[in-house]
Amino acid sequence: MAAMPEELIFVDPEPLSPSVFLDLPPTPDGESERTFFDDMVLPYVSRLLMEEEDVEDNFFYQYPDHPALLQAQLPFAQILSDAATTDNSCTVTSPSVSADTESSPGGENYESDNSGVLRSRFFVSGDSGDMVSSAFLRGMEEASKFLPTTSSVLLLDTKECSVKPEHGTVRAEVVDGMVWRGGGSGSRKNRREEDDVHEEQGRRASKLITPETEEAAVREMVDDMMLHEQDICMKGLQHLSITDNKGSSGKKTWRRRRRRSDGDDDEPVDLQTLLLHCAQAVATDDRRSAHQLLAQIKQHASPRGSGAQRLAHCFAEALEARLAGTGSQLYRSLVVRRTPAVDFLRGYKLFMAACCCKKVAFTFSNRTISDAMAGRTRLHIVDYGLGYGFQWPGLLRGLAARDGGPPEVRITGIDLPQPGFRPAYQLEETGRRLANCAHEFGVPFKFRGIAAKRESVRPEDLAIDPAEVVVVSSLCHFRHLMDESVVVGRPSPRDQVLGNIRRMRPDVFIHGVMSGGYGATFFPTRLREALFHYSAQFELLDATVPRDSEERLLVEREFFGQAVVNVVACEGADRVERPETYKQWQARNRRAGLRQLPLKPEVVKVVLDKVRDNYHKDFVVDEDERWLLHRWKGRVLYGLSTWVADEGGTGW
Question: In sequence order, what DSSP letters do the residues of 517-551 get, joined into one string?
Fold first, then answer.
């Protein structure tokens, strides 16, 4: 028997009595029924953002007595204690430890008076728990914030004294209990700089002194978003929209101002044509022409310009890496470079509000699952590529409001293991958050996370119960699986996954794809198809998001930029971005023994209404060969379809 992938089991306790949840929004009906399944997405992202931002503030309060943290703080406590006793001309009080505190040798069981002072000054008593792997480094980083940043700032008990530096006496002025060095032509500047230091230290101290107040504010904001999520989402969309008549004049003014400031009076340059010519030169190893074209492209490209300029900048960097032969190294460095979770979630939230692709996928998926659950009481969702689980809070809310009470819900999340000592950490955190959501809505819930390659998870590993409604979901994740161009002589990972899904015999398999032809082996063709796809992505952001948005810059750099580098500059097994068109996926699914289901008109209508009412007019949703297609100005970007096992098919 094959070795089981690393996994975790997360079972939430039985939900409280329904009376606890009487303050939740009433059951939607009528026109509101078509929105309540997915309007939890942006509030859920907001909750994650506040959790991530609150981690640093609450780190000390969660783990005040951990030996590793106390050991990390001991050297800094000794430094502060020594600094407090060096000046005998006046009495100095350290903000963290008293001057007569004696530090004992550190160790795992370090519990001296010094540690008690640290805890009493810096921490609020709280429950201890498991430390994250970076506790030691975080402890050093946080403790270093309380070291004196300049030699001119001291806390005094007296109103006036003399500080004797190495080269003479400097008059000290006491303002609000702080000592400022006087004299010299730079005293005002020093005072302003030190005032900034004082203000920054005050902000840091306020975080440590009033944690209960901040946590209460966070809870209040979360409750408000949970109860009024639709209004919040719509306000966010209205704020992002700059494509109406009011915003068009502003955009033109910005373009004219940019041309004047750049001093560029040349005629317009067709950057896409230059990129195609450069790709052809790279493919034929005409390095001189390639470098000349790259120089011309980079002259007109900009990461903060128009959509076409940003696109050209992104592709120029990838082409430059391919010419230098450093594409794989560059891509690995981009992947390893950790984007803070807060920044990632902010970028994701902006993309959710600006582009309807995710919203369409979540609405289509959740309504399909709801229809499959008619008259049933147990649901098992197998989610390939769970990530942060943005899709499921809306479904849990909808199931909680259905007639007859909520069903039992079990989610099995499958995702790639994370690097480090805790490969299933993100799965574990997502399971905890989803369990909290289910608990709030009164839905019986169980979660299981499997950190493994998608093709290695077999039906026998999932404990499928015939009494459950089994739903398999994959929204645009299978494009990262290797295809036949890499795997030879055996079924590719794509075919293995589809064969495993067929053997699960799901009630419905919801398949979402990023429709694109830039998985081709021939480089010029691949680059041309990638340009065709990503030009639409950059263009839709240019039409819906202001150009000075930092979140937009993050989306283009982290979401699109990494993918473009992989498509353009990597080859072989290093090239993990391998999308196919929806028609190619349709043929592949049929070969694997799956049968496509027709689209339900009522589900299509819900999606069409949502896109028409909330998003840019150039977003179009239509049908083709039982696929629900998402287009931007006629270009197909994404496709959605539903499948079941074909009992008469052979499959893999």
Answer: STT-SSHHHHHHHHHHHHHHHHHHHHHHS-TT-HH
pLDDT at position 298 over 80:
yes
Q: Which segments of 125-228 does DSSP mark as H helices, in order? A: 135-144, 187-209, 211-227
Query: β-pairing, 445-451 with 469-475?
Result: unpaired
Q: Among 616, 541, 529, which residue's Cα sits nearest to residue 305?
A: 541
| The pairing of beta strand 170-175 with beta strand 162-163 | antiparallel
Contact in structure between 638 and 513 (CB atoms under 8 Å): yes
Q: Whole-model pTM?
A: 0.68
DSSP letter string over 160-181?
--EE--TTS-EEEEEETTEEEE
**Averaged pLDDT for residues 619-641:** 96
Whether residue 70 is predicted with pLDDT greater than 80 in this model: the reply is no
User: Which amino acid is located at 68 in the chain?
Assistant: A
Task: Please give the residue that has the higher pLDDT: either 247 or 366.
Answer: 366
List of residues 6+ apart from 356 with CB closer than 8 A: 610, 611, 614, 615, 619, 621, 630
**Residue ranges in 301-356 assigned as alpha helix (H):** 307-324, 327-336, 341-354
* pLDDT tens digit sequence for 435-491: 999 999 999 999 999 999 999 999 999 999 999 999 999 999 999 999 998 988 899
Select from 131, 29, 10, 22 the least CA-distant residue to 70.
131
The answer to whether 483 and 519 are in contact (CB under 8 A) is: yes
Both tokens assigned to 278: 């450069």
pLDDT reading at 166 higher than 80: no
The terminus-to-terminus CA distance of the chain in angstroms comes to: 19
Asked whether the predicted pLDDT for residue 237 surpasses 60, the reply is no
pLDDT cut 90: percent of the chain above it: 52
139, 69 Cβ separation under 8 angstroms: yes
List helix spans (H) across 341-492.
Answer: 341-354, 357-372, 392-400, 425-441
CB-based contact 380:468 (threshold 8 Å): yes
Count Cβ atoms below 10 Å from residue 465 Cβ, excluding itself: 11
User: What's the token pair of residue 246?
Assistant: 């009011």
Instruction: Give the dihedral sign, CA 326/331/332/336.
Output: positive
Phi and psi at residue 489, in whole multiples of 5°? 90, 0
Each as own residue / partner, the long-range contacts of residues 298-307 (CB below 8 Å, 24 or more positions apart, any chain) are 300/264, 300/269, 300/271, 301/271, 303/553, 303/556, 303/557, 304/547, 304/548, 304/553, 305/258, 305/547, 306/255, 306/542, 306/547, 307/535, 307/538, 307/539, 307/541, 307/542, 307/543
- Output the CA angle 250-256-259, nearest 5 degrees: 140
Which tokens hold the place of 419?
């690097």
Among 641, 633, 639, residue whose Cα is nearest residue 537 = 633
Strands (E), 416-515: 445-451, 469-475, 508-514
70 vs 118: CA distance, rounded Å: 9
Classify residue 592 by burial, with Cβ atoms within 10 Å: 0-12, 13-18, 19+: buried
What pLDDT does 71 receive?
66
Predicted local confidence at residue 335, as pLDDT = 85
Across 319-347, average pLDDT: 90
Report yes or no: 38 and 32 within 8 Å, Cβ to Cβ: no
Instruction: Give the Cα separation of 388 and 391 in Å (integer).
Output: 9
